[in-house]
Design goal:
CATH architecture of the largest domain: 4-Layer Sandwich
CATH topology of the largest domain: Nitrilase/N-carbamoyl-D-aminoacid amidohydrolase
Number of domains: 2
Radius of gyration: 26 Å
Order of helices and strands: HHHHHHHHHHEHEHEEEEEHEHEEEEHH
Number of strands: 12
Largest sheet: 6 strands, mixed
Number of helices: 16
Strand order of the largest sheet: 5-4-3-2-1-12
């Protein structure tokens, strides 16, 4: 009876990694948990049991993703059909858990080969292969089929104040470093458990003897714990790994951020008078005479289409600039052109209007896959069938802040999770990033803070300041070193789902911004190394199978 009870408790123990990983992200935000959450599962794969590794990695992945995506049902109250929402929640959790299972399968196969080789192969598997497999699979998840670039492991490090290596390899290098630390903890556990496993005899002893470092020379035993930690410390000691809070030779722009918190498009009848609300918000910052006023995504949907014939959007922007005493206004909204619908941002500076159309659209939100070929599907898109625009900078005109213009890299909603797109904006010459989003679809849920966490990594990766405005979300400024100033209430808590405004002085470079290593090369080095590792594993497997067939009778 006691043995059966212990077996059941053991099952729940093997679900602890998924729980700890979920606790690392909002709403709990216990970042330190990520540095040990995966250690038990890494210990498991080193035993070489492929089937058990795949099952337990998948179960923990599903637990993590199902819990971390628990904000998805919040869209039901905004008109989303609950059967489709719940189905999408489950399917997305299963899909993302598949990457956990893929890591478990690949790493277990790797260790089945490594454990029969010399110690140096084992060391390479711990220091190089495991981190590369995780980082590579995260890159694939973020790019494949449009990508789901959400809650990479490195996002935790970026928001815990340890995001500096992202300047060299992006958020995925941070993920690899966290896996390396987890692997070090797994190595320590192996060393400590080896005598106990040997005392048990039988299968446990065989596993311990095959996987533990007990039989290696004493001088080398500490290498697999010391070397990974030295490698991680080295990442933080590389030249330029500690970014400045503002670019060198910088000038200051005063930026006003307006968190209006209007309900989403399905709740127009519940909206307050936008003119009255914005008049109140703008008057709070008028004495600072901001250079730029930023409104969230969809803000102009209350007023009219961007570039509409009635000119309501331009009139509203001029009025708001007058009340706030701002020289320019940037706001999001919808527009139609040539029979197409665009989710856009507009920059108003006097009579000048610059437009940016969203490039990375959200599937099943802003379009239904295949809806251009089959128009009947367009009726299923919540906001209509949107079309993608072209990636380009928006130019804050000369005379705003300084004599020369300022290139703005604008991202709308989900685009701020796409590190490749933001990197391209930085490479095009952006001096400041502006992220606008409408999180009212998932208001009063953990999605709003999870979404804001992604932006911290973008600031560190590019070395550029980030201005973020979230409708019913999180609003603030993130500096190139990852430090953030968020809109807060009187008690000092993060202001979410409550209207407010803030004004912040942001340093932008007077000349060209020196690109970070990540801006220059992106994910190519890490992903190339990942592909080479997969090719090497495939070749080894082929040669092994060929050798087996050769000696068969």
């Amino acid at each position: 009876m006691i043995r059966n009870l212990l077996k059941k408790l053991t099952f729940f123990f093997w679900l602890a990694p998924g729980f700890l990983l979920w606790a690392s992200f909002p709403p709990m935000g216990e970042c330190k948990d990520a540095y040990l959450a995966l250690a038990p599962l890494l210990w498991l794969v080193r035993q070489g049991d492929v089937k058990k590794s795949v099952v337990r990695w998948f179960l923990n992945g599903f637990l993590f993703w199902f819990a971390t995506l628990s904000w998805m049902p919040a869209i039901v109250k905004n008109g989303g059909p609950w059967p489709l929402v719940v189905l999408g929640w489950g399917v997305l959790a299963v899909y993302c858990a598949g990457y956990f299972a893929a890591f478990g399968w690949l790493s277990a196969r790797l260790w089945r080969w490594v454990r029969n080789r010399g110690y140096w192969w084992r060391l390479m598997a711990i220091v190089v292969a495991e981190p590369l497999l995780w980082a590579g699979l995260e890159i694939v998840r973020s790019r494949l089929l449009g990508g789901f670039a959400w809650n990479q492991l490195g996002v935790v490090a970026a928001n815990a104040g340890f995001g500096a290596p992202a300047r060299f390899g992006g958020v995925y290098l941070l993920s690899a470093a966290i896996v390396l630390i987890n692997g070090t903890i797994a190595s320590i556990a192996e060393t400590m458990l080896a005598p106990w496993l040997g005392a048990r005899g039988g299968k446990a002893a065989a596993i311990g003897a095959a996987a533990s470092p007990v039989e290696i020379p004493r001088m080398l035993r500490s290498l697999e714990t010391v070397l990974p930690l030295l490698f991680v410390v080295g990442l933080y000691c590389l030249p330029g790994s500690v970014p400045a809070s503002a670019p060198e030779n910088s000038r200051t722009l005063t930026v006003a951020l307006f968190q209006r918190n209007f309900p989403c498009v399905f709740d127009r009848h519940r909206r307050e008078d936008p003119i009255a609300v914005y008049s109140n918000l703008a008057s709070r910052v008028a004495f600072l005479k901001p250079d730029l006023a930023v409104l969230p995504e969809s803000a102009l949907c209350e007023i009219g289409d961007i570039g509409g014939r009635d000119g309501n959007d331009l009139a509203f922007a001029r009025w708001l600039a007058g009340v706030a005493r701002s020289r320019a206004v940037l706001a999001g909204g919808g527009r139609g052109e040539g029979g197409r619908i665009y989710n856009s941002a507009a920059l108003y500076a006097g009579s000048t209007v610059a437009l940016y159309d969203k490039v990375h659209l959200v599937p099943f939100g802003e379009f239904i896959p295949g809806d251009k070929l089959f128009p009947a599907l367009q009726k299923l898109a919540p906001v209509g069938s949107c079309s993608a625009g072209e990636l380009k900078l928006m130019e804050l005109p000369a005379g705003v802040g300084e004599a020369e213009g300022v290139g703005l890299g604008v991202a709308i909603c989900y685009e701020d999770t796409d590190s490749a797109q933001i990197r391209r904006l930085a490479a095009m010459g952006a001096k400041m990033l502006v992220f606008i989003t409408n999180d009212s679809w998932f208001s009063h849920s953990s999605q709003t803070v999870q979404h804001a966490w992604q932006a911290t990594a973008r600031a560190i990766e590019t070395g550029l300041p980030v201005v973020r405005v979230g409708n019913s979300g999180v609003t603030g400024v993130i500096f190139p070193d990852g430090r953030a100033e968020w809109l807060r209430d009187e008690a000092g808590g993060m202001l979410v789902d409550v209207s407010g405004t803030m004004c912040e002085r942001v340093g932008v470079s007077r000349g060209d911004v020196p690109p970070t290593f990540y801006v220059r090369l992106g994910d190519a080095p890490l992903f190339t190394a990942f592909l080479l590792l997969i090719v090497a594993m495939s070749v080894v497997k082929y040669l092994h199978e060929h050798e087996k067939r050769r000696y068969l009778p």
